[in-house]
């Protein structure tokens, strides 16, 4: 394009100079000079330069229009590409917003779970305090029994015993039977044979009470009783407890 502009300027200069010369010749007083060869030469040069200028301008306009159309196409292509990228970014932002909402929901769920866990800890602490009180009462009861000499001085402690949770459907037998001949104490000794049903004290190790359903000299049957539930948390299938067994002397 720069070269075309230079050609146009040169042609314009020559055209102006030729026009000035032609005017000078035309303005002379001698009319016969109007038919001079110089006049027609300048006139033809001026027409030639004008024609060339028109051609150059037309060519320049054609190439300029072509470049303009190419520029418009390229600009439109880049604009369309930018619109596609902006649309993709909008989708990514929407997905990010959705992910943030999901994480917020999970955080709220975890927060509620922690609150429930804190409540469970408080309830468990209260249950432990209550169990400690029961153990102290049990110790006092054992001391009283020993003083009255109605039981053997030796107590047999059997731990790691279990009964099924009555809240869970189809969780096996709700009453669990333990034969004394199959039980071992915490130090690995077998229980003696009882001539009459022994005295048994049940020490729960969970939130549920464990009660004696039936007792003979050969076995004891137990079951969970008055269980309040686990506050919506996963229910345990079994409850652990310990037995304190002593023989009757009378």
Account of the protein in words:
It is a single chain. With 250 residues, the protein is of the alpha+beta class. It has 2 domains: 1-15 and 49-148; 151-246, Immunoglobulin-like (Sandwich), CATH 2.60.40. The protein is built from 2 helices and 6 strands; from the N terminus they run ααββββββ. The protein has helices at 2-26, 37-148; strands at 156-164, 176-179, 199-204, 209-215, 219-225, 238-246. The strands form 2 sheets. It has a 3-stranded antiparallel sheet. A 3-stranded antiparallel sheet has the order 2-5-4, with no helix packed on it. Helix 1 (2-26) runs antiparallel to helix 2 (37-148).
Arithmetic mean pLDDT: 73
The H-and-E topology, N to C, reads as HHEEEEEE
Strand order of the largest sheet: 1-6-3
Q: Approximately how much beta-strand content do the residues carry? A: 15-25%
Overall 3D shape: rod-shaped
Helical percentage: 40-55%
Which stretches are poorly predicted, pLDDT < 50 over at least 5 residues?
none
* N-end to C-end Cα span: 128 Å
Please count the helical segments: 2
Radius of gyration: 56 Å
* Major sheet description: 3 strands, antiparallel
The number of distinct structural domains comes to 2
DSSP, total strands: 6
Q: Which structural category fits the helices and strands? A: alpha+beta
């Amino acid at each position: 394009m720069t070269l075309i502009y230079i050609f146009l300027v040169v042609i314009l200069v020559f055209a102006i100079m030729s026009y000035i010369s032609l005017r000078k010749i035309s303005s002379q007083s001698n009319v016969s000079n109007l038919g001079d060869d110089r006049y027609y030469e300048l006139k033809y040069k001026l027409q030639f330069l004008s024609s060339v200028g028109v051609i150059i301008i037309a060519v320049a306009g054609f190439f300029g229009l072509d470049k303009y159309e190419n520029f418009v196409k390229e600009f439109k292509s880049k604009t369309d590409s930018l619109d596609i990228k902006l649309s993709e970014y909008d989708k990514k932002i929407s997905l990010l917003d959705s992910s943030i909402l999901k994480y917020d929901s999970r955080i709220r769920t975890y927060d509620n779970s922690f609150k429930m866990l804190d409540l469970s800890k408080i309830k468990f602490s209260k249950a432990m305090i209550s169990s400690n009180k029961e153990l102290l009462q049990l110790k006092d009861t054992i001391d009283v029994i020993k003083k009255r000499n109605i039981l053997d001085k030796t107590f047999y402690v059997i731990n790691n015993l279990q009964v099924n949770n009555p809240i869970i459907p189809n969780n096996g037998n709700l009453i669990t039977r333990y034969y004394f001949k199959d039980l071992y104490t915490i130090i690995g000794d077998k229980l003696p044979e009882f001539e009459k049903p022994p005295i048994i004290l049940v020490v729960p190790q969970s939130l549920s009470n464990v009660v004696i359903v039936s007792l003979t000299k050969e076995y004891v049957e137990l079951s969970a009783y008055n269980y309040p539930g686990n506050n919506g948390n996963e229910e345990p299938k079994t409850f652990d407890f310990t037995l304190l067994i002593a023989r009757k002397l009378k």
